[in-house]
Amino acid sequence: RKKNINFDYSIEIYPDESREYSLVYIFEFKGYTRKSVSINEIETFCNQIDQLNKKNIKGVVISKTKLSNTGVDMLKELGIMYIVVDGDDYDVKLYNKYSNLKKNSHVEISIFEKIAKELKTKGYENVEHLSSEIIEQLAIDKLIQIFNKKRIVDLDVFVNYLFKNESIRVVYSNDFKEDEKGYLNKKKKTIVVNEKYKGKKIESFILAHEYGHYLLHGNVKRYGAEIMFTNPKYFDFNFKKMQYMIQTDEGWIEWQANKFAANFLVNKDLFISEFKQLMLKILGRVEKLFIDQQTVNINTYRQFLKILSDKFNVSNKVIQIRLEECGLVEYDVNKDDFTKLLMSSISELSD
């Protein structure tokens, strides 16, 4: 060939103490922009694999959307591996023309597990590890720009601002998996929200989260292509350590969007002011909210969550995390018991 063939990703497998690879996996990523995968795309990839004219090459198609039966038959005939991914989960639909992965050796399974782990941390471009302070300041600037000095987000005003000032449309759809909440289509400048969350507290968080993606991740690409920003769970808030656990670029991207949304919807200065007023009203004094296993303190904690979540129109989970971040709570409880206590006292982000 006079021209090079560009593949999305490749991994060479070398036996111990060998200078020659024993196997090369070549990956093609499809369906990452919510488009259906055409037969022509599959056929092109298969032809490119064939043009390499080399032995020990294993083609792999990884997709977020299922292929047609014709596409699967084409992959099967050529021995191309086919995997459907969903967040951190994956399902090997086809290993080769004779069998799927489950029927193959432990060695093959081990190799693929290593590949899957490798792919979770690769492929992203232009991901900046921005600090909390930078993201918080951006949220404050946007809050002032859109709402002047009010500092509490009015959803109708926010949506109107997005359309008139940023040319971003907000639409609602039922075409979602059960656990999906929304996504940003950068190319079409559209935020799509799961219809079932319309009118619920989480709606404002979904919009602010996707707007955070728009502001922070405009240049982010994966495997050289623009990506859709959905909201899978790529990081966790560790209640024992009181910190976020982030290990991948996906984690950074989602954490930053969540960080922006939390600061945009629950402004720190206003939140602390509201907290102090609530302390005076309910307890007659201003101090940290004390949490232990006593029923009276648990009920007070729940009362604070309810009132503040209603005030800022966000879920209890967002308020709980903002209480942590602003240093407004004090605990006197075993860490394991404390985690169970929190989980029984607050609802998840999707509430």
Write up this protein.
With 351 residues, the chain is of the alpha/beta class. The chain contains eleven helices and 15 strands. The strands form five sheets. The protein has a five-stranded mixed sheet with strand order 1-2-3-4-5. It has a three-stranded antiparallel sheet with strand order 6-10-11, with no helix packed on it. A three-stranded mixed sheet has the order 7-9-8, covered by helices on one side. A hairpin with a 2-residue loop joins strand 4 and strand 5. The longest helix is centred in the last third of the chain and has 18 residues. The C terminus is likely disordered.
**What order do the strands of the largest sheet run in, or round the barrel if closed?**
1-2-3-4-5
From the alpha-carbon coordinates, what is the Rg to the nearest angstrom? 24 Å
Which class do the helix and strand fractions yield?
Answer: alpha/beta
Strand content: 15-25%
Number of strands: 15
Mean pLDDT: 77
Could you tell me how far the N terminus lies from the C terminus, measured between alpha carbons in angstroms?
Answer: 56 Å
The largest pleated sheet is described as: 5 strands, mixed
Q: Which geometry do the CA atoms define?
A: elongated
Which regions contain 5 or more consecutive residues with pLDDT less than 50?
Answer: 101-107, 223-246, 345-351
Fraction of residues in helix: 40-55%
Order of helices and strands: EEHEHEEHEHHEEEHEEEEHHEHHEH
Total count of helical runs of at least 4 residues:
11
